Amino acid sequence: MTLFLQIMLLVTSVLLVLLVLLHRAKGGGLSSLFGGGMQSSLAGSSVAEKNLDRMTFFVIALWVISIIGSGLLVSLSS
């Protein structure tokens, strides 16, 4: 079970980094320092962005579950 949670933590961490990098910059952050904030978004969120948000929240939930599960296993084994 510990090995499964560690693998799940590793996979979800990599997926989370990739999904966050796929998001469009909204401005006001570090991306605006390097010229990323010059774009204006005329339309709201598209369907692809909403689906990307949903996938990101799902992966975040799996990531949190794997961290809590790993912590519980460590505390119960000692």
Automatic annotation (TrEMBL):
Membrane topology: Multi-pass membrane protein
Keywords from the UniProt entry: Cell membrane, Membrane, Protein transport, Translocation, Transmembrane, Transmembrane helix, Transport
Alphabetical list of InterPro entries matching this protein: SecG
Any one of the GO CC terms: plasma membrane
Gene Ontology biological process: protein secretion
Keyword Cell membrane: yes
Compartment(s): Cell membrane; Membrane
Record GO terms (molecular function): protein-transporting ATPase activity
Pfam families: SecG
Transmembrane region(s): 55-76
Family: Belongs to the SecG family.
Job of this protein: Involved in protein export. Participates in an early event of protein translocation.
NCBIfam families associated with the record: secG
Designated name of the protein: Protein-export membrane protein SecG
